[in-house]
Write a structure and sequence with these properties.
Blueprint lengths: L22 H36 L2 H8 L2 H34 L5 H13 L2 H12 L4 H6 L10 H25 L3 H9 L4 H12 L1 H16 L3 H6 L6 H12 L1 H26 L8
Length: about 290
Amino acid sequence: MTRPDTTTAGNTTGAPPERGLAAPERRRARRLFPAALGIAGVALVALVALPVLAIVLGTSPGSVGATLGEHDVRWSLWVTVISALMATGVGLLLGVPLAYVLARRRFPGKRLVEGLIDLPVVLPHTAAGVALLVVYGHDGILGRLLAPLGITFTDAMPGIVVAMMFVSVPFLVDMAKEAFAAVDERYELVARTLGVSQAMAFWRVALPLAWRGVVAGAVMMWARGISEFGAVVILAYNPKIIPTLVYERYEGYGLKAAEPVALIIIIVALVVFVALRTLLAPRGRGRE
């Protein structure tokens, strides 16, 4: 007869026993682990939420209303939102095809391309602004070529769009690439066998199945664009976007003057992200 395995006797849960621990210690460890997870989560949420709550609770609605009544604030808000939308539109036009290629194809230099696309995420944005100025400034490579056509980037809205697109397009490309990679390529192959062209298979099969990731990437790109400061302020200080206006008011008039403007952009970003979560929330699923 074989001796019973005493290491698993009485373990009816199927979970491996904590070796070397007595029963009370094991129960205490099981209680402490969820508590540790909760403490870590609360600490991180507090780290993000406290500054936001501080500026929300420390700014009166009257000051926000008065700030919104100022022409330069409304103009800056319009420039910020529209420039970010234009940057996102160009990003969608150029970034979605690239994301599809990166998700579906292998080619020499692919890792290099992916690294170059992700570079703006880790590049200091003041350095990004200097690099953009070298290319798009009055004496830059493209700045000189496009100036005769009436297209200027220094202290102009096209410069804001270029700077926003440079720093934010990695979010769109990466999220769209992951969305396309999650779509089974066999669906497209089946469509091709039915006589559909490769382009139509992309439009009718791959893109509709990956749309959530593409939309999420576009919203993330737009949100990152409206928050950009360093690259924009070097290439195009004027017309002022909201981050530039916040900095200018803080430097010129102090913290209280900057708080209402900062709160306005926080509210805009929060509304967009809540709408995004609502739009992309899974439908018809029970609680996991």
